[in-house]
Design goal:
alpha+beta, 6-stranded antiparallel sheet, 5 helices, 6 strands, 20% strand
């Protein structure tokens, strides 16, 4: 009778395609909230239940769309605030005598993050904006409205006013005066 091989010797000659025996351990339930700290972890313990993904989507989707909408409004407002039209009207207000007399020196946006209200559509020739300004003496709301009648024409300023805190509306655009800063720019372009 041939000699019998030990168990260790048999494992050395075992086929590589044969599965090793499965070791079974008893599953341990997941810790409950009042069990205290988990001192050791076993890989074969029962997993905790997770909420259904549909419920999470319905809770976070409105927040996501709210953040996207707020970001969109902020981006478009930043584009308006940094446009040449707003910069030119703010500069013209700083150099206007009536504006300096009512607002004082250092005329700039009233808020740290200015909100430019209205339409600024240069392609179709419509500009009607308003924004809050402040100086050393007071604050107000500046309005600027300009239209382009023809496709290749110049913009014509219709309204340029300053509404003060007390409700007074000051017309900064005096058509009889030659001090209109917007007409000076177009007359220089026509001469050249």
């Amino acid at each position: 009778m041939p000699p019998r091989l030990s168990a260790q010797a048999c494992t050395a000659f075992r086929s590589p395609f044969r599965r090793p025996p499965i070791r079974r351990r008893n599953l341990i339930a997941a810790p409950s909230p009042n069990d205290g700290p988990l001192m050791n972890r076993r890989s074969d313990r029962a997993l905790p239940s997770i909420p259904s993904p549909g419920k999470i989507w319905f809770q976070t989707l409105p927040i996501f769309f709210g953040v996207i909408a707020l970001s969109t409004f902020a981006i478009f407002n930043y584009q308006k605030a940094s446009s040449s039209i707003v910069n030119a009207t703010l500069y013209a207000l700083r150099t206007n005598e009536l504006g300096q007399r009512e607002l004082g020196e250092r005329i700039y946006f009233r808020d740290k993050f200015p909100w430019i209200r209205g339409e600024m559509n240069q392609l179709h020739g419509r500009i009607d904006i308003r924004f809050a300004v402040k100086g050393t003496k007071g604050t107000g709301m500046m309005r600027f409205k300009s239209v382009r009648q023809s496709r290749k024409g110049y913009f014509v300023t219709q309204v340029w006013s300053l509404e003060m805190e007390d409700g007074r509306i000051l017309q900064l655009l005096d058509e009889s005066s030659a001090d209109d800063p917007f007409k000076k720019i177009t007359s220089q372009e026509e001469a050249s």
